[in-house]
Amino acid sequence: MRYRKLQLMIFAFCIAISCIVIYHNSSTYYRLQKVLKGRLLQRAVFSNVTYRNVNTVRYNVTTQTPPEQKPTPIPLRGWQQNVQWEPGAELDIYDFLINPVDKCNAGKDNITLLVLIKSAPGNTRRRDAARRTYISGAAKLNVSTRLLFIVGDTKARNERKNIQIEALRHRDILNVGFHDGYYNLTIKLVMGFKWALQFCNNSEFLMSIDDDVMVDIVTLVNDLDALPSKDHFQFVLGSKVEGSKPFRDVESKRYIPKNFYPAKTYPPYSFGHGYVMSRHVVEELYLISREIPATMPFDDVYCGILLDKLSIRIVDRSTWFKDHHPQKKEQDYLKIEVSAQEMEKAWKCLGEDKLTSTWSMCFFCWGMRCIY
Fold it and tell me: Where found, per UniProt (predicted)?
């Protein structure tokens, strides 16, 4: 009996060896070996480089993407030449290259409003104009606010040097280590949230504006101070956009392919030139941004998507202003798309003699009439 079992085992072993030899010499074997080697090579390559799955603009770079990580990025012909944009969830992984950590004196007395001014590295003249006008006005009146320019990184050495000089001179530059560009505004948004929560958690509200916007800080802060504490919880104030549709024309600057965002319309969002939100909303937005990928590079739309997920409604800024200032029907807290020259001209027209504690939109808009 034992001899019979041994014979069967030897026979089975011989059959197995024969199958292995035949398979080894087959074309299927070589194809599988090629695939396996390709996978091992791919793992080796990507284990030796830092690959960040975030939305970022790349210039003249071809990047291979492991199919198991995410879909291949789509070249967007209508944006810029040699540009690819990739959706991703990790928007808060960048370093603060220049960080004014004491700007808000976090942990001390509360401030009403932190204003983050989105600026490009080369926009020195715009930043200087803002400093000489409404920023200096807010400082002279001791308004409860802090204003900070947030800029990304640049390859231009002269721009980098200028940013460092500005930061030392004015201490109002937050420089973040990502490539600064129109299609990386979602990174700028989320990194701004991160900085505010870490280094300015004593601010009641955060405002995000462009550097070509002129703001009546005094009137805005006064109105925010008058807002009851119970209304801070889900407060978002902005120029509300509803029913906006994704651009499907590849030649459009705001083109979005269907596989990035398949829905026919965007949820309500605020135009990116200027909006205000409470500290609690900033906390909620920052947390959920780590879970929901930015499927487009537009910070205002992305912020609207996050607000929609949180079921937070946007209060329309013009309506809210009119409710608080019914006598100023044609006015607002800010003017948009104002050049550096126009900003300084309006401020000069306003006049230092009118810069008192009663300074309000009536003077602000009177000054703006000098340029419109």
Answer: Golgi apparatus membrane
User: Where residue 195 sits, what CATH number does that domain have?
Assistant: 3.90.550.10
- Cα separation, 241 vs 271, in Å, equals 7
Domain-located, residue 64: no
With respect to residue 60, please indicate whether it lies within any of the assigned structural domains.
no
Residue tagged 């997920």 (tokens): 309
Please, which residues bridge with residue 208 across strands?
116, 275
* Domain assignment present for 333: yes
In a domain, 343, yes or no: yes
Phi–psi pair at 16, nearest 5 degrees:
-60, -45
Whole-prediction pTM: 0.75
Q: Which domain holds residue 257?
A: 96-368
Neighbours of 372 (CB within 10 A): 9
User: C-alpha dihedral over 171, 126, 271, 199, to 10 degrees?
Assistant: 0
Q: What is the pLDDT of residues 140-193, one digit of tens each?
A: 899 999 999 999 999 999 999 999 999 999 999 999 999 898 888 999 999 999
